[in-house]
Structure formats: structure tokens, C-alpha cells
Design a protein that fits this description.
- This protein is of the alpha/beta class.
- The chain has 2 domains: 32 residues, no CATH class; 298 residues, Methylmalonyl-CoA mutase (TIM Barrel, Alpha-Beta Barrel), CATH 3.20.20.
- The chain is 41% helix and 14% strand.
- The protein is built from 14 helices and 13 strands.
- The strands form 4 sheets. Strands 4-11-10-9-8-7 form a 6-stranded parallel β-sheet, with helices on both faces. A 3-stranded antiparallel β-sheet has the order 1-2-3.
- Helix 2 runs parallel beside helix 5, helix 2 packs parallel to helix 11 and helix 10 packs across helix 11.
- The chain is globular.
- Pfam families: Met_asp_mut_E.
- One of its GO terms (molecular function) is methylaspartate mutase activity.
- It comes from Polymorphospora rubra.
- Keywords: Cobalamin, Cobalt, Isomerase.
Length: 459
């Protein structure tokens, strides 16, 4: 029998083998959202410009609902986010239930363990055709999360078989690929054709990964989604250390997407800088504005924001709204130093490297899942500074004097080093690594600490 009804959402309980009502099926929900998440983003971008989105996630349904409502009400062109907690991410549902039972804090929304009618009530009056919600999670085992989304009628998520495996834990890559293969196919089927998935491949490790690998993995993961039935995808790229190099990277990603991603609906999403973040409020907001300027310069349809509290703690709802409005304002006032044509990227070095990597993986096997696994086993794909057991770990990178990310050592990847043979000026040391890790933070914090405006980005 129905246990709840919210704006046409009829939730039926189904008794388990133990006689308990544990499984729910959501009925008659599709009338709320005839378009996919991707179609909405492209439409909103065409009408109002850059779409901005938080990483917001709170354990309590009422607070999660308040965060979504505040996102919708922000003075910006927004979509909503539910970010899942870390225990759910790794499938530790016992700890989730203990936390919920004892009122302990979680760092996101436990969408699997909150009853579906509770989440439906939290979304009631907020989720609509004009305000879609994406669920972000970070899991190498997304099956239970995707199943929870399907029960709720939610059809937008993100991640990838590589990008939500290597940086996040010790789940074997083969297992992650198998998990993602099954979960993606089920998610695509259960959505009735509206499923949307965003790659996380453009953000591996957050920083110090040269753009060609980020672009290649974003393209490969988007292709993976399409081959498993998802026809609406977005490709991600994370803001790095050099504005012009980022423009080149996004142009390369767009070009490769037209060549290798067989989707009917594609858009592109930029992540505000994912490395060591400025500690000062002004520095953090200036870096966010720089991300918005980059999104405009490259024609990105969507931007995932960071807040002024990023270096210190989980942001509040108000801090998330501030970031959304700051990014929206920056996107509307990008200045005149950025190219009007996002495809005018100058050098095609990133494109050539990324294409070599994509083609090398595709040549390994007609089955992309198998090809990805072989590529990492042989070091054809190799993420610098990544300690996962299935990553070869033979590549190294660093930031050159101009601020560009460059390869010091490419291991077995089918590309060439972009730094001259190692000498005293380019040899990687612990001091040099720390300086590279903190370069962006220091560039945006130092002027504020000195009482001056941040310097112009390196280009």
C-alpha cells in the first residue's frame, strides 16, 4: 500500500522475505521532469548563461532540503546537489545506521539508508522541471547508490570506473570497472532513457596531473557510460595552475568528445580548483572568480563551485550560496582579456597527447572495460603521485616556471616528456613538490596577507 504521496510521488512498500517493508518502488514520478538533467543544463545555459552548482551534502533530511531550497533561491543560474556521505561511499552502511541512530554527524547525505519516503518528502516542492538535482557520491561501488536514486526517480549522478577508484581507496580497479559496468547499465535501464552521468576523470587527484591524462580519462569514461546505455553525459575538467593551458585542455576535450563519445546529449563541466585551497576568504573567492572566468572563456555550460571555507571545514548553507552568487557574478563580468571563441586554444599539444592516450587504450581491446584495466596494468595510463596498487606509479610531473603542468617522467605512456632531461633545475625534490602543491594557494593568499589585490593569473 502507498505510505506517502508527494506531488504525485506514490511510494509503495514491498515486504522482504522477513516480512519487513524494506524495499520501495516509486510510481508516477516522471511527469515532474520530462527532460534529462543534461538537456536542462544546456537549455538553462542557452537562456541564462553559466549554470553554477554546489557540492552540498548534509545528513539530516530537513537541512538537506533547506540547502537545496537555498540553492534554488540563490541569485544565480543554479541546479541542485545532494552529496553522499563517506560511509555510504564505501558501502559501510552499519556505520551509517549507527550514526543516524545516535545523531552522530556525517559529512553528506546517506541516501541509501534514509527511507525513500523521507528523502521524497525532503525533495517535495523543491525538485522540479525547472530545478533538477544531481547526486554526487565518490564510490567505486555505486550499485546501491544508483538503485536508491532509481527508487526515488532521480536520474543524474557522476563518477567513473577509474576516477572513483584510483584516488579514493583500495578497491581493485578490475572490481571497480565491473561494479560500474553493472550499475551504469541498470541505472540507464531504470531511468527509462533519461539517465545522465558526469565523468570525474577530469579531476583525478585534484592537482599536479597534467591535462592530457585528465582529458583522456574524461573522454574514456564518457565513452564507457555511452557503451553501457547512458546517452546523456557531461565531461569534466578541473581548473589547474595555468589559465591558457586550461583553455587548451578544454578545447582538446571538446574536440575529442566529438570523435570518441557517441552520446546524443553532451555538455561540459568545470570544477573550481580541487587542490590545496587558499586559506583567506578573499583569496578563496578570487580563485573561484578565476574559475568562473575560465568557464566563460572555454564555453563550459556548468561550474562546480568551491567556498571561502573550503580550506577549513564543511561549508555552511550560507557559504555555499555565497559561492554560487560570487561565481555567477564573475561569469557575468569576465573582463576583456579572455578569448571570445572557446575553441581558439592556440597550441594543440594537450590534444595530441590526450588523443595518443585514448587511441592506445582503445587499441588494447574492443571491450573498453577490459582495455582500461589492461592500460593501467601496463602503465599506458599512469597517474602521477597516485598510490593505488593498480596504478603503475612511474610517472612524475611538476609545475614549470611559467606555471604550466609538465611531465618530468612519462613512464610507459605513449607520449613524450614535456620537460628537458632531468637536471638540477627540474629534478623533483620534496621541497619542490610541496612548493608545487601550495603554488595556487600561495598565489591567491599572499596578496591578501600583504594587503594587496591578487596578482593576475599566469598566462
Amino acid at each position: 500500500m502507498p505510505i506517502a504521496s508527494h506531488s504525485g510521488w506514490d511510494i509503495d512498500t514491498k515486504p522482504s522475505e522477513h516480512g519487513e517493508a524494506t524495499r520501495v518502488t516509486l510510481v508516477d514520478y516522471s511527469s515532474l521532469k520530462p527532460r534529462s538533467f543534461g538537456e536542462y543544463v544546456r537549455s538553462a545555459y542557452a537562456e541564462k548563461g553559466l549554470v553554477v552548482q554546489p557540492r552540498m551534502g548534509f545528513a539530516e533530511p530537513a537541512r538537506m532540503a533547506a540547502g537545496l531550497a537555498a540553492t534554488r533561491a540563490a541569485r544565480a543560474n543554479t541546479v541542485g546537489t545532494i552529496t553522499v556521505d563517506s560511509y555510504t561511499r564505501v558501502g559501510d552502511h552499519e556505520h551509517v545506521r549507527t550514526a543516524l541512530e545516535h545523531g552522530l554527524q556525517l559529512n553528506g547525505y546517506p541516501i541509501v539508508d534514509h527511507p525513500a519516503d523521507v528523502t521524497a518528502k525532503a525533495l517535495d516542492g523543491i525538485l522540479s522541471e525547472s530545478f533538477p538535482v544531481q547526486v554526487r557520491h565518490g564510490s567505486a561501488r555505486p550499485g546501491a547508490i544508483f538503485a536508491a536514486l532509481s527508487r526515488l526517480g532521480l536520474d543524474a549522478s557522476e563518477g567513473g570506473p577509474v576516477s572513483y577508484c584510483l584516488p579514493y581507496g583500495r578497491v581493485p580497479l578490475r572490481e571497480s570497472i565491473n561494479n560500474w559496468s553493472e550499475a551504469t547499465s541498470q541505472f540507464a535501464f531504470q531511468s527509462g532513457g533519461t539517465a545522465h552521468l558526469e565523468t570525474f576523470g577530469g579531476c583525478l587527484l585534484g592537482q599536479l596531473c597534467p591535462p592530457s591524462v585528465l582529458v583522456a580519462l574524461s573522454v574514456l569514461e564518457a565513452r564507457f557510460f555511452c557503451l553501457h546505455g547512458v546517452s546523456s553525459v557531461s565531461l569534466s575538467y578541473a581548473q589547474q595552475t595555468h589559465f591558457e593551458q586550461d583553455i587548451e585542455a578544454v578545447a582538446a576535450m571538446r574536440r575529442l568528445a566529438t570523435e570518441f563519445v557517441p552520446a546524443r546529449d553532451v555538455h561540459f563541466v568545470l570544477y573550481a580548483y580541487m587542490g590545496v585551497y587558499p586559506r583567506t576568504r578573499k583569496g578563496a573567492l578570487e580563485l573561484l572568480r578565476e574559475a568562473a572566468h575560465l568557464a566563460v572563456a572555454t564555453g563550459m555550460e556548468r561550474l562546480i563551485v568551491k567556498t571561502s571555507a573550503e580550506a577549513h571545514r564543511i561549508p555552511t548553507i550560507a557559504e555555499n550560496v555565497e559561492a554560487l552568487e560570487e561565481a555567477d557574478d564573475a561569469a557575468r563580468h569576465p573582463g576583456d582579456r579572455h578569448p571570445a571563441d572557446p575553441g581558439n586554444a592556440g597550441s594543440d599539444c594537450v590534444y595530441r597527447e590526450a588523443r595518443n592516450l585514448v587511441e592506445a587504450v582503445l587499441e588494447l581491446s574492443p571491450d573498453l572495460s577490459r582495455g582500461l584495466h589492461i592500460a593501467f596494468r601496463r602503465g599506458i595510463l599512469d597517474i602521477p603521485f597516485c598510490l593505488h596498487p593498480d596504478n603503475a606509479g612511474r610517472t612524475r610531473s611538476r609545475i614549470d616556471p611559467q606555471g604550466r603542468l609538465q611531465w618530468l617522467d612519462v613512464g610507459s605512456m605513449p607520449i613524450s616528456p614535456t620537460v628537458e632531461p632531468v637536471g638540477p633545475s627540474v629534478r623533483l625534490t620534496s621541497q619542490g613538490l610541496l612548493a608545487d602543491l601550495n603554488l595556487v594557494r600561495d598565489r591567491f593568499d599572499r596578496p591578501e596577507l600583504a594587503g594587496r589585490k591578487p596578482v593576475a593569473p599566469i598566462d
